[in-house]
């Protein structure tokens, strides 16, 4: 009798481990994709800090990946690791504010995404 219960426990633990690994693999696969979110607008907070609004999944992790500054433009690359949203479409996106620190004053320079597309100011 003890052997049968021991076998059932072992089988149950093996099934649970397989299910847990499968779920972890799906979540890792979903979150291993870094996405460049769509930019909405920006507004200056002060001469060297701007607030950029981007469209992201509500539970995603978003960060400034890189900034490149020249005399005429500032290019900003923002990346997001999306969360797993089953069956969601673009209507599930929300606006997120991302603060960007600049090396020098924004002044009259244009703000662009990493591909060179201008970002409108608010």
Description:
The protein is α+β, with helices and mostly antiparallel strands. The chain is 25% helix and 39% strand. The protein has one helix and six strands. The strands form two sheets. The chain has a three-stranded antiparallel beta sheet, with no helix packed on it. The radius of gyration is 22 Å and the shape is rod-shaped. The model has no long low-confidence stretch (mean pLDDT 84).
Total number of distinct structural domains: 2
What are the low-pLDDT stretches, counting only 5+ consecutive residues below 50?
none
Count of individual helical segments: 1
The biggest sheet, with number of strands, parallel, antiparallel or mixed sense and barrel status, is: 3 strands, antiparallel
Distance between the termini: 73 Å
Order of helices and strands: HEEEEEE
- Briefly note the structural class of the backbone: alpha+beta
- What is the averaged pLDDT score? 84
Give the fraction of residues assigned to helices: 10-25%
Biggest β-sheet: strands ordered side by side in the sheet: 1-2-5
Q: Write down the overall geometry.
A: rod-shaped
User: Strand fraction band?
Assistant: 35-45%
The total beta strand count reads 6
From the alpha carbons, calculate the radius of gyration and give it in angstroms. 22 Å
Short overview:
The protein has one helix at 2-31, and strands at residues 38-46, 49-56, 61-69, 73-81, 94-101, 110-113.
């Amino acid at each position: 009798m003890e052997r049968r219960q021991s076998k059932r426990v072992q089988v149950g633990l093996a099934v649970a481990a397989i299910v847990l690994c499968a779920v972890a693999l799906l979540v890792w696969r979903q979150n291993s994709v870094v996405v460049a979110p769509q930019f909405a607008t920006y507004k200056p907070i002060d001469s060297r800090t701007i607030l950029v609004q981007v469209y992201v999944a509500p539970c995603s992790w978003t960060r400034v990946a890189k900034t490149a500054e020249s005399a005429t433009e500032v290019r900003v690359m923002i990346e997001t690791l999306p969360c797993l949203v089953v069956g969601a479409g673009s209507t599930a996106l929300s606006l997120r504010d991302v603060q960007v620190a600049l090396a020098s004053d924004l002044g009259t320079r244009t703000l662009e995404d990493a591909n060179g597309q201008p970002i409108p100011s608010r």
